[in-house]
């Protein structure tokens, strides 16, 4: 892809593999850099990978004072992306279609809002948007708030960095913000082979905890290499028999009734059980916002009371959220080589449909990243 300066505000980008040119107007005015349109992968309706459209001129909104415009170099595909594309959360997102998918990003700061003080134009950054963001990161330019991005670790590439923040912030919120794990505690990660589970292992090890995990056979060696004391292959062993003792915190990334039963049984009194599979979105999809959200709150409260009084443990649904403290710690651990998420395969952004299809069909078990020119 080559850049041709236009007579107006910026650059016309010509892709030698395409008949289409797209325009990204670009004008520097002090600390401001105005981009009015760019390429983006748009979701006009819910469905399979075929519904995704790479459009050449998608509007870029003006920055708010606390926002940062990031020129994307790499964006990763999360399970939330493929689920949203298929209709997960439709009760919230359907009225807002078309959407731009994507949560993770690594790239360069192209512009900063007037109140931004910690970042500057040209700086390499990485970060992640909140799960409910409507304008995602599958675009040449993405907009994030100042607390959703942080300087990219120098020791990792943009591809490697883009795989980290959303999964790592999800695990960080559960272990550090909710369970408040401390050195010497025992942590059980159910499903340590996925991005969130694998990150949770590394965060707990870095905090000085003793970690046990369940995972598939292909992930056992990697979990042990990351510092887990025990990695149980759930396809070959009975986890309830193989795992010994009680734990201070259980993070269940699978979230089915069986893993919840096992996780709860392994907790000490005063411990925390946290699952990624909260029912809020599915219930609102089934019953609408006005019935689904209160129903989800009722179910959550009932379980919290039940477990607190029958077992003396805390129960919670956990979700990713922007957290500048967590993102800074993730950056420091990544820089030190103590936190990484291996990338299985990369695709150019022009092959986003193929990438989503590969994830849907489970052809690629690990992390997939979309690269932008």
Automatic annotation (TrEMBL):
The family database entries (InterPro entries) matched by this protein are listed as: ADH-like_N (IPR013154), ER (IPR020843), GroES-like_sf (IPR011032), Lipid_raft_assoc_Zn_ADH (IPR052585), NAD(P)-bd_dom_sf (IPR036291)
Alphabetized SUPFAM superfamilies for the sequence: GroES-like (SSF50129), NAD(P)-binding Rossmann-fold domains (SSF51735)
Q: Which residue stretches, if any, does this entry annotate as coiled coil?
A: none
User: For this UniProt entry, which segments traverse the membrane?
Assistant: none
| GO MF, one example | oxidoreductase activity
* Pfam families per record: ADH_N, ADH_zinc_N_2
What top-level branch of life does the organism fall under? Eukaryota
Q: Which residues form the Enoyl reductase (ER) domain?
A: 47-370
Q: What is this protein called?
A: Alcohol dehydrogenase superfamily, zinc-type
Organism equals Trema orientale
Recall the taxonomic lineage recorded for the source organism: Eukaryota, Viridiplantae, Streptophyta, Embryophyta, Tracheophyta
